[in-house]
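Q: Joint fold for the lines below.
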Amino acid sequence: MPEIANKTDEQVEAEADVDSFRKDLGPFVVATEMTRMAMVFTDAKEPNYPIVFANDSFLELTGYERKDVLGNPFNSLMAVGVSAESLAQVEAAFEGDCDIDPEIHYRRKDGSEFWASLFISAVRDEAGVVVQHFISLVDLTRYKQEQAQSNMLIDELNHRVKNTLSTVQSIAWQALRNSSDPEVIRESMESRLFALSCSHDLLTRENWDGAELLDLVNEALKPFAASNGRADRINVRGDKIRVPPKAALALGIAIHELATNAAKYGAFSNALGSIEVNWAIEQGEGGERLVLHWQEKDGPPVTPPSRKGFGSRVIERGLVHELDARVTLEYRPGGVACTIDMPAPKAGSNE
Amino acid sequence: MSKLLAGRCVLVVEDEMLILMMIEDMLSDLGCESVITASSVDLALAKIDAHTIDVAMLDSNLGGNSSDPIADALAERHVPFFFATGQKNGAMERGYQDRPVLKKPFSREALEARFRQLLSGTE
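A: Joint structure:
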């Protein structure tokens, strides 16, 4: 075969080593060749630990061919991009000076990356002299990816928790700014925290992937629908549409504030009033819009509030800000009417 | 209470409306009468173009997007700014590690201290 002529002296020598190896160890060599764990032997008599044997799993893991690896120093082979620190660790493991098995970020022949844990053990002859090293590699790539994914989730969780704590701080801040009556403060803080918690529950059930607007509105109205036969006085309907998590939290609070106002002064403050909530996707100039209407009727005559409270601030300013919405909140004599006109959430959007 | 921010125009970039409302109240307590707000990178960039801003605070994570482009625009105009973030290391991975960071949640006093730090370098 013509390749034989091209082989370097080192290669020829290395292959001769493997042959003698095969003769001496018989079935063990076959087992090593067949196992799914990547394994190599290196020569301890030569400098830089040249590879004298590599099994198929090793070639599969690294993307090299047998002719690329035999006779080549173990450390230089996959060292492209490997930190000097990691290489020193491998060196130390060869010398037996390493307590922990090194985890190395390697590159395959094609440049792609993988993580491997190295187990290096010395092979001694009868006189106790180290003649070879046996190295097995465990592919840690998937584990490392999962670790990175889990670190990312922890960071994301931390971000959300800190934002939620800030939101709770804001709720406390508003309650304390708007009243000095402890009962009023307690009630206003609790009801908003419960509303927030309700939206969180809904989103958690959906893996924080968003929520159906119908579920969102129903959940937000649930505490108000529970008594006085009010359930029959609420009419909720609209196109099936999914709202991303942040918008769901904002709309949840807004609906809660509208309902709170209705229970105090509006259609839920007497025995007759009713509330209609409906929405539809409409075609606007800049693309599709989600337009939601809240309309109260048959409540006591409405008078505009003397000062703007938390609720109207959330609805008129907060939604405009967070959802880029156009909002009208009208205290019509026949009942409060609110229209929230926002860019329709895009499918798959996570904002 | 000091009126540190009287006569100043402050840009607040924050995507959570309830947090923003509290920040607005805190700024009002500090004498600020001109607060410009934005909840996204695009809106913030438009407002930076349209207004003369004295000082700014930026949430480092806007619905999953980095606020770095806003920081770039402010730095270009020499507008002092700091980041407000709940993240462990902030999100100041590139370029802005030396900028002050306010960890969420924060008190009005901490907010005031950050503005004082930025404004002590000007005028």
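Q: Anything notable?
A: The two ends of chain A are 64 Å apart (CA to CA). Chain A is about 45% helix and 25% strand.
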